[in-house]
Amino acid sequence: MYMDLSDSKKDELICILTNELRVLRAKMEISQHDLADRIGITRQTLGMIEKKKHRMTWNHFMALLFVFKSNDGSSEILDRIGAYPDELDRYIKLSDGERS
Q1: 3-state class (DSSP) for residue 3
Q2: Domain around 69
Q3: The whole model's pTM is what?
């Protein structure tokens, strides 16, 4: 069964992550340059996202989410701030090649 997130829910999650991006990056002790490299964007773009002068895309959100979920410290923060709710977990888990 395919499960999708509404655009408003995606916007809400993007907003949460944008607001906490510096904190999460600091928790991982990673520079803007290194984080940007990991997700395939420029340091300038990441800086603009952190300053809220450039809107984070859903693809940026998902890439950042995977980076931050792979680190124990930042993963705990994601859960605490609500950037990784159960419905998002269900959205990204694959079962038999389909989203469930």
Answers
A1: coil
A2: 7-99
A3: 0.84
